Amino acid sequence: MAMRLKEVNQLMVRSYIAKANLLLLGKPGIGKTWTIEAFAQKMRETIPSFQLWHFYGPTMSPMDIQASMPDNETGTLKVYSNACLPNAYTEPDAQGVVFVGEMLNTDPTTLKLLQKYVNGEDMNGVLKKPAGVMIVADSNRLEDKAGVMQQFRALLNRFLQIEVYADANDNIEFAAKQGWHPVVQAFFRENPHLTDNYESVFAADVGKDKKAQANSAEEGKRGVWACMRGWNRISDLEAAAEQVQSELSLDEIVGSVGSGPGIQYNTFKQMVSRLAKIEDVFAHPDKVKLPEKIDELYALTTIVATRAKEEHLPAVDVFIRRLPADLSVFAIRTMALRKSLNLIGTAEYRSWMLDPEISKMLTAR
């Protein structure tokens, strides 16, 4: 059994209230770390002092938690604790999450010491986890690692262990909420199966062209496949390319998500470049030519919905009323997901909600 990644936020809320530590397991690059960071950000809305302390397990040593140093004056050992760890002796009311990344691939000696902290036990009278602090760890699954260390059952038993996954719809929604580059978002809508192709890269696929399969497998060995981490990089690179008025190279695209998805994305970009310019849509929404092919119309609608600002909404209203009803609703939903656009409450949004056909489709479950 596995839980959808979008459901993990409520899981973490329940775990925090119950003071239960949490270990999230899942394949690489699906957004486990993003989810934990989003949880902490959401908790700050209720608890302003809520903090998130980051630790990356594989690079830690025991001295990153607690170390003994000789005191020459007294001839005794003095114990020093990591000041970055919340400490009940100095911050008894601290609230938040200590996040340990890639815990299953952490040095066992380090975890022996970390176990006492996880348990909330006293450590030499100078370090102890505050009661209001929860430990959340994440890790790739054992089958996703080239090599993995066997960790202590006693430590792992201290965690509620949940395997998580994200499907294509979750990935599309996440990209919209985060305001990823519109071409990436449009590509996701047209190619949902390429938001993450981990299984096809790392599992035998007898139906795939042998040459393409060999190339994909070689890229996988180098840690290159289509996943949300790679697509986020392309989104950032596209924004940077626009900023310096240059074109993203195919090598940059392929180096982020692999040759198969990368070539398809680049081909999609070429198609998008032939569509009406976004400036023309906002300037002449009633006259701009609409593509005849549904995939091109879908792409143009996505770009309009992801690029529109509040001052563009009157033009967007004119544009989307020229579209089929389902595409109009898609545009409105896409805009509503964007954190940077204050859509709800505008005159245009009220008008759409009063339109019987649009309102019916918007509220359909």
Short description:
With 365 residues, this protein is an alpha/beta fold. It is built from 17 helices and eight strands.
Descriptive report:
The chain is of the alpha/beta class. It has three domains: 164 residues, Rossmann fold, CATH 3.40.50; 100 residues, no CATH class; 91 residues. The chain contains 17 helices and eight strands. The strands form two sheets. The chain has a six-stranded parallel β-sheet with strand order 1-8-2-7-6-3, with helices on one face. Strands 4-5 form a two-stranded antiparallel ribbon.
CATH class of the largest domain: Alpha Beta
Task: Note the main sheet.
Answer: 6 strands, parallel
How many helices does DSSP assign?
17
**Helix residue percentage:** 40-55%
The tally of beta strands, per DSSP, is 8
Strand order of the largest sheet: 1-8-2-7-6-3
